[in-house]
Design brief:
With 313 residues, this protein is of the alpha+beta class. Helices cover 30% and strands 25% of the residues. The structure holds pyridoxal-5'-phosphate.
Amino acid sequence: MSNAPITEVLDAVTASNPNAATDRPYVWLDGEFVPKSAAKVSVFDHGLLYGDGCFEGIRAYGGRIFKCKSHIDRFFRSAERIRLTIPYSADEIDRLMRDSLAKNNITDGYIRLVVTRGVGSLGLHPFKCPKASVFCIADKISLYPPEMYAEGMPIVVAKRPRIPIDCLDPSIKSLNYLNNILAKIEAIDAGVLEALMLNTQGDVAECTGDNVFVIKDGAVVTPALEAGLLDGITRSFVIGLCEELGVSITERTVRLDEVMTADEVFLTGTAAEIIAVKSIDQKPVGDGAGEGPVTRRLRERFRAVLKSGAPED
Ligand SMILES: Cc1ncc(COP(=O)(O)O)c(C=O)c1O
């Protein structure tokens, strides 16, 4: 990785998006496509006023929507948990995502699907908002510079714990991301792009936008959902890949010292895909040489599956 300040690294990633300087993409907003500059929600929308809403980040590979059904299911599940009615059926959501890709000529890209509580008055009352608002953005994304995939990425341990499940269940993929954003700021202040978040018991939960996997002596472990983390769709897929490849995989409580003494650590997420961790709080992971053999095997299998036709289930 270059030694450029982290803000410059991020600027370079953003500039690589061909849509960055145009009025594209067209955004599907409450039933119609509008150009980027016209894709606006009201200042009275409770999604904006209170973070009252849910979202999904989804990838398309070769024109297929990776784990489309799982994302739509999680979208509806999240909305149901906050008693928000999505004013479309699952089939309609599926259709509008595919239409968004087609409208923007995207076969390989990223979809952001959002439902907000909609417009209401200046009080919290969610049920005084008569109609939820739905929008879908299909665009290109590259989260981290390509060299980080080969060399691994440095991360830090956030001092701020993950919000406990009893307060806000992180398996609801809501628009409330301030807990994660504050941890992300800790990362950026430390000159890196990700932070490992512990729960209030001090056990490992996840990173600010990715799930975490730890490898010791060839065996893979990942924090169980009870630790308080998003039930990541890439996480589930990678657990399946481990099973398919005969790699030992366990979901259980993971202590910080296990991560600090692991042979390999990697992160998973829709946007990040699979990325190795090179150092934590500046201490090298394993031999510090970047992506280790188990991570590489899983990432290569992941790429091969996507190449042969991304599963949409
Ligand atoms: C907090 C958090 N954890 C994990 C993930 C990875 O989840 P998925 O693989 O479903 O994208 C995300 C993705 O948005 C996330 O925001």
